[in-house]
Design a protein that fits this description.
This is FAD-binding domain-containing protein. The protein contains 11 helices and 18 strands. It is of the alpha/beta class. The longest helix has 30 residues. The protein starts with 13 loop residues before the first strand and ends with a helix.
Length: about 425
């Protein structure tokens, strides 16, 4: 798919985006933002398996948006023109003091992560409720189109003449059909059906840890110190626990441990399972002092989570069975576990960078290669760092004490450079 000097290879073409998650929405908004209006705009259709954007409003957790280097999600949001709206909804990270903390089991603060914001951004890292981020992206991505909800893209094949046939399925089970397009953006998440159809052996791998948690509500205010900070308690007994506010009344928590076998929620017995999981959390986190027990006991039924850490290495397009005209972005290409703390940033940057290369490129093949050159290295680095976090966060014995020496030196260096730079 080449462009003439007086045209663009995507001018007037049809693009299907599979998935209205962070990466798919970021791509659609970024294509609108960067498209050269000398050429006819592509027709972009977004499909998502959810019933409507109302489902997004039920997402009860927050995520971190980074702004300390060029690959941060805040950079993508600035370029999209959405940064002001993001800042309006920030939960933490805009204050002058650092927010990300690492505590001992007795809540002794051993490090407060302080990084310098990149190129004048308002923060090096802030937290926002996922529902708020997604609502902002939905508004941006639907300026020129509507999302077709309750429709899944379940497969794709290349036709003669370089077009792609996409198989679609109604969420209510009413039927299946197909549509043709010139470019398919697979943004349908870690359990991508398109990836399963085209790269059946490219599956998620268990990273050896499980998170058990939920969302606790405190109408009178979240207990200190997690009311104004987010971070990890590392016990040295093979267990750690993540805490982060979601809003003024709610805090999400997740205690974790290493294991050789993954576990998932049993949705057939929700009430019994909730009680069992909360009891297990208290037992596994027994070394963590208050307000741990208070937070666990304030967890709202229905918010419980049991997440086996799974991830998947990225791939370059042109490898395996991916036909030209199909591009995987976000978790559909390089799924990461919650221990990465970087999934939203990867998705935002993937969406922006792919749109950027498509808008400025002379051919589809060249644009996708340039995108891979940007996307793959940062995904590889993120997965490596998440595995390191799993190892060190659950360390015991000598490894644990070595980790704290490293942390204390890091804390001193953070203070030193923060004061003198």
């Amino acid at each position: 798919m080449e462009a003439r000097a007086d045209s663009h290879f995507l001018a007037g073409k049809k693009i299907i985006v599979a998935g209205a998650g962070i990466s798919g929405l970021a791509f659609a908004a970024a294509l609108d933002k960067q498209w050269d209006d000398r050429f006819a705009r592509p027709e972009v259709t977004i499909y998502d398996r959810e019933k409507s954007d109302e489902a997004a409003q039920r997402e009860g957790y927050s995520l971190s948006l980074n702004g300390f280097d060029k690959d941060g999600g805040l950079v993508a949001l600035r370029d999209l023109g959405l940064l002001d709206r993001i800042v309006e909804h920030a939960i933490l990270g805009l204050e002058t003091q650092p927010s990300m903390k690492i505590w001992t089991s007795s809540w002794e603060e051993n490090i407060a992560i302080k990084l310098r914001a990149y190129q004048g951004l308002p923060s090096a890292s802030l937290r926002i409720a996922r529902k708020d981020l997604r609502k902002i992206l939905i508004d941006a991505a639907t300026e020129h189109r509507a999302i077709r909800w309750e429709t899944s893209c379940v497969g794709a094949e290349r036709l003669e003449g370089e077009r792609i046939r996409v198989q679609l399925s109604a969420g209510d089970g009413s039927g299946t059909w197909s549509e043709e397009c010139d470019l398919l953006i697979a943004a349908d998440g870690a359990s991508s059906k398109i990836r399963a159809a085209l790269r059946s052996k490219d599956t998620l791998q268990f990273a050896g840890a499980i998170q058990l948690g939920g969302c606790a509500r405190f109408p009178g205010g979240i207990p200190a110190p997690v009311d104004k900070s987010w971070g990890l308690v590392i016990t040295g007994e093979g267990v750690c626990c993540f805490f982060s506010p979601v809003d003024a009344e709610r805090v999400v928590w997740a205690v974790s441990w290493r294991t050789g076998e993954p576990r998932d929620l049993d949705k057939t017995r929700p009430e019994e399972q909730f009680r069992s999981l909360m009891a297990e959390a208290l037992e596994r986190g027994a070394a963590i002092r208050e307000p741990f027990r208070t937070i666990v006991e304030a967890t709202e039924p229905g918010t419980e989570l049991l997440i086996p850490a799974r991830d998947k290495a990225p791939f370059r397009h042109g490898e395996g069975r991916v036909p030209p005209g199909v591009v995987f972005i976000g978790d559909s290409n390089h799924a990461v576990s919650p221990f990465a703390g970087n999934g939203a940033n990867l998705g935002l940057k993937d969406g922006w960078d792919l749109a950027r290369e498509l808008c400025r490129g002379a051919s589809l093949a060249g644009a996708v290669k340039a995108y891979d050159d940007r996307s793959v290295p940062r995904a590889v680095a993120t997965i490596k760092s998440s595995h390191w976090r799993i190892t060190m966060g659950h360390a015991t014995g000598a490894a644990y004490w070595s980790f704290w020496v490293f942390m204390r030196v890091g804390n001193f260096m953070s203070w030193l450079f923060g004061r003198f730079m």
